[in-house]
Design brief:
The protein is α/β, with parallel strands linked by helices. 50% of the residues lie in helices and 18% in strands.
Length: 567
């Protein structure tokens, strides 16, 4: 039950608080005062969207808060809408929530039949779903939906399997050719980079061997009388002989000896470097492998890493082609199991749906007769067959459609083709009444001008139906008819007011002394202040209302007062 609603800074509403009562709560007011917008705010709170333009001018955000009492617990809901960006936040019991969680909760909180809600009755899907809610085993319909969804997914997998198989069969020859070419070369991940590094290293070693050989040749045999070492040895002997006669040349002989020793050490290093550089590397094999990889890349028009990826894809695709026959058989077996389960379910569902439709038709007749329809009214459900999977005869669902015969002597006709707006409004009220009785949850019923198209004495029957329904369910009702408003447990009057150049929508609970004037306004009567004052009459003068009016009689018709009474 909805206990409290507060709306702030939304459109023409600045700050509005409403305390609702059990039973029937009625909102009345002039057209355009903002009655339906109060319900729109409630719909926004429970998950529907609003554009940021509806935030009241000059405000940063709008908010809607409500307190619901459900299953013995109080639920506090709040939703905010920012003017900048239009983002909204939902709070459920002071904790952030999502639109999905709010929509899931909505079905337990409110059941809204809008101003044009009767148009739902014209939808085949709505009519088809009505008997399911009245089946003795309503879970059959949910299980049917689950099996149909599973069957649709299975069929989609089969279609995808066949499509993939057909596409790969067309490419099988190419795939096998590519697999063979790759197998001939058998490339390895990172092999090309490794070979390039080895080739670069081999070229560096060749350069080292060449430079070391040239240096050794200079040291040992680059001159006419031998190499640099031999020359230094000859120089050292000459300087030593010279030092015997010229003592000042003695240091020169020592320098020559030091240079010769240093070059001897250099010779050892050069020989070791040349020996290491001559480690064998099969350059021809290296170049041949690089050439084979280059040829493979040219044939397949892609780099080596992509070729390795292609190799895996080819293996997967060819493996798929090899095993898809078995996969398809398994999927077909699964499909047959689902079909068998669905066939067994339909064997229960279709008769149960017919039985529920028959009971619902009788219940609708009783409700509609109480809403002013003829005692001769007849309601029935006609069934058509709809295939659920291919053309299998055992997988056909029976779909109900509402037919009715509002007047005797006429054939039954589809409701969506023959009912007027007022008839649809009453029909919807009957459906909501029965749905509410049958439902486990008891959300607050919201009727936005359910009386559209209804007039005359029928309004009293509609009022009786609403009052009867409100005895067990909380109801919010927007109406322009005093016959309905007079039945309210709590009456709210909605109005607009202009203050300082700004327009405000106001809503106040009607005090008992205000209700007669509001009902008179709704009936189109003048308020007491607008009734002209009758001039005073002389003493003893009769008022025109006090003068008895004699009824007109046909020629020769006796006045009742002249007819003698029987003894």
């Amino acid at each position: 039950m909805l206990e409290f609603l507060r709306i702030r800074n939304l459109a023409l509403i600045e700050d509005l608080e409403l305390d609702f009562a059990p039973g029937m709560n009625v909102l009345t007011g002039e057209t355009g005062a903002g009655k339906s917008f109060i319900l729109k705010a409630l719909n926004f709170l429970t998950g529907e969207r609003l554009v940021p333009d509806l935030v009241r001018a000059g405000s940063e955000k709008a908010s809607v808060e409500a307190v619901f009492y459900l299953d013995g617990e109080e639920h506090v809901l709040r939703r905010e809408l920012t003017a900048a960006g239009g983002r909204s936040r939902i709070f459920i019991n002071d904790r952030l929530g999502t639109q999905e969680s709010m929509r899931a909760l909505r079905a337990r909180l409110i059941l809204h039949s809008g101003q044009h809600g009767q148009q739902k009755l014209l939808q085949p899907s709505f009519q088809a779903a009505l008997p399911d809610a009245f089946m003795r085993r309503p879970e059959l319909a949910a299980e049917k939906e689950r099996l149909c969804a599973e069957l649709a997914r299975c069929a989609e997998r089969l279609r995808a399997l066949d499509a993939t198989r057909a596409a790969l069969e067309d490419k099988r020859e190419l795939l096998e050719y590519q697999r063979g070419e790759i197998a001939k070369v058998a490339p390895r991940p990172g092999e090309e980079e490794e070979l390039e590094e080895r080739r670069t290293a081999a070229r560096r070693r060749d350069a080292v061997a060449e430079n070391a050989g040239r240096a050794l040749a200079l040291l040992n045999g680059g001159g006419e009388k031998g190499g640099v070492l031999q020359g230094l040895a000859d120089l050292e002997r000459s300087l030593e002989a010279l030092a015997a006669d010229v003592p000042d040349c003695s240091p020169l002989a020592e320098h020559a000896a030091s240079a010769r020793i240093a070059l001897r050490d250099a010779e050892k290093l050069l020989r070791r470097a040349a020996r290491n550089a001559r480690q064998e590397e099969d350059g021809e094999a290296l170049e041949a492998r690089l050439y084979a990889l280059a040829q493979l890349k040219r044939k397949l028009h892609r780099p080596l890493d992509s070729i390795l990826t292609l190799q895996r894809e080819i293996a997967e695709n060819l493996d798929f082609l090899d095993r898809c026959v078995l996969d398809r058989k398994n999927m077909e077996a699964e499909e047959q199991e689902l079909c068998a389960a669905l066939a067994d379910l339909l064997a229960e569902l279709n008769p149960a749906r017919r039985e529920a439709a028959a009971r619902l038709a009788v219940a609708l007749e009783d409700e509609l007769k109480g809403l002013g329809f003829s005692e001769h009214l007849r309601v029935s459900f006609e069934f058509s067959s709809r295939p659920l999977h291919g053309d299998r005869a055992d997988l056909h669902e029976e779909i109900p459609r509402i037919f009715w015969q509002p007047n005797p002597g006429q054939p039954a006709q589809p409701l969506d083709r023959t009912a007027s707006g007022g008839e649809l409004s009453r029909f919807l009220l009957a459906v909501v009444s029965l749905t509410g009785k049958n439902a486990q949850e008891r959300p607050t019923l919201i009727f936005d001008e359910i009386d559209a198209g209804v007039g005359g004495l029928t309004l009293n029957r509609v009022a009786d139906g609403l009052e009867k329904l409100a005895a067990s369910r909380q109801m919010l009702l927007i109406t322009h008819w005093p016959q309905l408003a007079a039945r309210a447990e709590r009456h709210f009057i909605v109005s607009k007011e202009v203050r300082c150049g700004s327009t405000y929508t106001l809503c106040r609970p009607a005090a008992p002394e205000d209700i007669p004037a509001e009902l008179a306004r709704m009936a189109g009567e003048e308020s007491p202040e607008d009734i002209p004052v009758e001039p005073e009459r002389a003493a003893g003068e009769e008022s025109p209302e006090d003068i008895p009016v004699e009824p007109e009689r046909a020629a020769g018709e006796e006045n009742p007062e002249e007819i003698p009474a029987h003894p």
